[in-house]
Amino acid sequence: MEALRLRRPSHRGYRTLPSSYPGSSQQKKTIVFEAKGYYTINDIKSMIQLKEGIQSDQYTLVYGGKLLQDYRTLASLDIRTESTLYMIFNPRDVMPIFVKTPNGKIVKVEVKVLYTLRDVKAIVESFIGCPVADCRMIYAGNELQDCKTLAFYNIEENSTLEVLPSWIQIFIKTWNGKTITLDVARSNTVREVKDKIFCKVRVPVHFQSIVFSGKRLEDKWRLARYNIEKDSTLHMVLAW
């Protein structure tokens, strides 16, 4: 048996599978299921209905930026243990659009006209493995509201949207008691924060150790993983 998580951005797969689903007023919720490779997407939906009471015709499951067909097995979709599926509500006819991610990469994703921008962010997140819920989404020079649908903005097939970081200010307390401010995105890695610190105080990255809430932070992880938010204070100590 393996585990899947089902993550719901407003609502959220037994490989443990996390699944994610958007709802307008709820906070993100992750539910965990145990599944086997021969389970179909329809089997997973039946498990969701038993556990959450959500009818299978009310949503589509998304993984790797793709809408999952009910008859496909987890193995055929290469969904492995600890994979995260996302739940998107109000499906209609599928159309491709392009999304330019914060790192400049352009990805092609499948969407439906009644998806909200929050739904689109969840699909992009499932595709690139990077949190984008806090980012801004831009189309034709205008910032889009998470609660609005693609249809509301007249976004059509092959349109290109852009995801831009939402900057927050955090504080870094250095080893000598000095406090500096940094503008960062929650999608920044700890290593990227160290680079910013170097630009401010000229302490080489390999001499820096960053601590938050009593925990030493790893270079490879993003700030969002550590629940670092606006006005958080991190401590920089020297790692000799």
Automatic annotation (TrEMBL):
Residues 1-14 have a biased composition (Basic residues). Residues 1-25 are annotated as: Disordered. Residues 26-88, 95-164, 168-238 form the Ubiquitin-like domain. The keyword Endoplasmic reticulum does not apply. CDD domains: Ubl_ubiquitin_like (cd17039). Pfam families: ubiquitin. Gene3D superfamilies: Phosphatidylinositol 3-kinase Catalytic Subunit, Chain A, domain 1 (3.10.20.90). Transmembrane segments: none annotated. Keywords: Isopeptide bond. One of its GO terms (molecular function) is mRNA binding. This is Ubiquitin-like domain-containing protein.
